[in-house]
Amino acid sequence: MGNIFESVILKESVFLDRNIVSPHYTPKNLPFREKQISDITLVLGNTLKGGRADNLFVYGKVGTGKTVTVRYVLQQLEEFSAQNSSGAETAYVNCRTHNSKYKVLLIALRRFYPDENFIGFSSAFVYEKLLEYANKNKKQVILALDEIDKVKDVDELIYGLNRGNDELKSGGISLIGISNNLLFKDRLDPRTKSSLCEKEMVFSPYNAEELRAILKDRCSKAFVEGAVEESAINCAAAFAAQESGDARTAVMLLLRAGEIADKAESKTVTDSDVRRAKIRVEGEIIFNMIKTLPSQQQLVLYAIASLSAENKGIRRITGEQEKGILFSGEIYEEYRRIAKSIGDNVISSRWYRQYINELEIYGLIVTTHSGKGIRGSTRLIKLGFDAKKIKAALEAEIFS
User: Fold this and answer.
1) Would you state the CATH architecture of domain 34-203?
2) Is the pLDDT assigned to residue 314 strictly greater than 70?
3) What is the per-residue pLDDT across 208-228, written as a single tens digit (0 to 9) for each?
């Protein structure tokens, strides 16, 4: 009897290089992001002349190319700096994984001191060590903080790093904050905002034509020549553009469609495969989106999911009961209760309304104003997906 994996190797596949349509692949060229690349390059270019770059905040929905564009420019800067002996150095930190000031500084230091281990040292020591590195080596240090809104003590982190520049005789520290939340900076402490000298950039979602071009480029490298029908590419691009303009969604649709074709031992990926893939991918997209929401927005959504899972609903004057439809006010009270129970800050009702608007834009909830049969005028809210699944996914994020 041969090895059980022989059949996997011998089986024909529509894929040439499956990794190219994986969520973790970083393309070498970034179509439709040339302007953003140019703008970020101008912001960071001052570091090559020994000056400090302005802080930069990059915003945009999931899948708009924020992270990959910033990392591409940082890589180019590192390469140019090494070849020309300039003093610019960079560090990238994923703040969803490293969500405190201490963790962010620790990960950054690993980039600059690869042979040393600072675990166990105090936050103050780690902070001073970073300043020391910039000062002694006359380095312009650029810290790219992805999902910066996930940092619990983000005000302290930003304020400390900005004020740290006042202590440096040479070198400097600049920040690139990357966030899905357009209103992130507005929620910072006034003292922190006043210390910033920053530029802002917003990445718009891709349209259907742009997504189609991106997919065609990926397909030419990821699939066997002629394996993906033109209609399949058009279908994936249209679905992704309709949902959110998310390039990752479009690419994921083709990946799953390719897997469906392979399982059926088909030599081509069709639009029917893409439609079947959409059913599979929708759940992944929703849960990936939930993970990227700011923590307070996750709490609001968790309150909605908790009440919906309990079969809460409204009762009209006629006595008719409508399950799954919630009053905005009762959600806010449930959110307040949950936030206090875990020792988190409670946002104002104004910010709460803004969060509700954003959740509706993301397609996670549906809202409407109360009509006939309900006393007074209020906002009615309904969760757009299975309450128990959303609740479980959020519990893994909030209470882990």
Assistant:
1) 3-Layer(aba) Sandwich (3.40)
2) no
3) 999 999 999 999 999 999 999
- Determine whether 35 is exposed, middle or buried from the number of CB atoms within 10 Å of its CB (0-12, 13-18, 19+): exposed
Determine the straight-line distance between the first and last CA of the chain, rounded to whole angstroms: 45
How far apart are alpha carbons 103 and 107 in whole angstroms? 6
Residue 387, number of CB atoms within 10 A of its CB: 18
Which amino acid belongs to residue 330?
A: E
At residue 366, the 3 state secondary structure works out as strand
pLDDT at 377: 57
230 pLDDT exceeds 60? yes
The residue-averaged pLDDT of 59-72 equals 91
Radius of gyration, CA atoms only, the chain:
24
CATH code, residues 206-288: 1.10.8.60
Separation of alpha carbons 59 and 202, rounded Å:
5
Q: Which amino acid is at 164?
A: G
Fold held by 293-398:
Arc Repressor Mutant, subunit A (1.10.10)
Q: Give the chain's mean pLDDT.
A: 88
Structure confidence by residue, pLDDT tens digits, 330-385: 999 999 999 999 988 898 898 899 889 888 877 789 888 765 545 555 788 999 88
So where are the chain's domains? 34-203, 206-288, 293-398
Tokens standing for 351?
């910010």
**What confidence score (pLDDT) does residue 217 get?**
94
Compute the distance between CA of residue 228 and CA of residue 8 in angstroms, rounded to an integer. 21
Q: What's the burial of 199, exposed, middle or buried (CB within 10 Å: 0-12/13-18/19+)?
A: middle
Please tell me the predicted confidence (pLDDT) of residue 316: 53
Instruction: Tell me which H or E stretch contains 200.
Output: strand 198-203
Report the C-alpha gap between 321 and 308 in whole angstroms.
14
- For residue 55, the cross-strand partners are 198
In the block, tokens 């206090």 appear at 340
Tell me which amino acid residue 88 is.
Answer: A
C-beta of residue 74 within 8 angstroms of C-beta of residue 90: yes
